[in-house]
Amino acid sequence: MSAMIIFGGSGGLGKPLTERIQAFASWPVVSVSSKDVDITDSEAVEAFMKEHEPTVVINMAVRNIDGMLHKRDVVSIEDQLKVSVQGNINIFRAAIPYMRANNFGRLIFISSILSRKPIMGTSIYSASKAFNDNLVKTVALENAKYHITANSIQLGYFEGGLTERVPEPIMKQVMDQIPLKRLGTVDELYKAIFFLINTEYVTGSNLTMAGGLEC
Q: What backbone torsions phi and psi does residue 106 show, to the nearest 5 degrees?
């Protein structure tokens, strides 16, 4: 059974996005949380993909632990990298064979504008996003002849999700810098994902959605 799989689809931004996708998707939609499958376990991911035979994979899963690098402990850094870097590698690696067999596939990684210009306290988070922004470019080259596209979406500040953790004084400063003077919406993210799914000629790209905010 071919399916659209959304990893990290139960979070503050992921849950309403998943509900919107489920209402309009052409394939069965499977929302995956860390309770369903450990994406740092390559064998568990492979078994999950074998069960669902993915056609579209959207990865929103992330482990975000803020802090100045010299104050971070090794265990928390390794844990963050396992989820945010190795986890995405495991997902892409396990999904691609089924997409190649079907001669069609869509890989979409939800990234951040911080990958382009990080801010203090986000060293591992920003670097992991930058890693995956470049990973999609190579994956796109390797799989283009099988009609598989790979793209990332670099999010700015959106309603829900990690934005809710930003302190109010800092959020006010951020809003002053966003040309549109508002947060992004779930509906707008859905439309971007719909565009990437239905537009094969866009592949290997890092699509920025930040309301005009330049980093």
A: -135, 125
Residue 11 above 90 pLDDT?
A: no
CATH number at residue 155: 3.40.50.720
Of 95, 85, 82, whose CA–CA distance to 40 is shortest?
A: 82
Cα–Cα nearest to 200, from 117, 105, 61, 60: 105
Q: Does the predicted model carry a pTM greater than 0.90?
A: yes
Average pLDDT over residues 142-168: 87
Question: Domain range for residue 124?
Answer: 3-209
Which residue in 147, 163, 165 sits closest to 155, CA to CA? 163
Q: Strands 54-59, 148-155: parallel, antiparallel or unpaired by DSSP? A: unpaired
Alpha carbon distance 32, 9 (integer Å): 6
User: Given this model, what pLDDT does residue 142 score?
Assistant: 98
Cα–Cα distances (Å) from 72 to 54, 66, 121, in that order, read 36, 9, 10
> Taking the mean position of all CA atoms in its chain, how far away is CA 121?
20
Give the residues across from 153 on adjacent strands. Answer: 110, 207
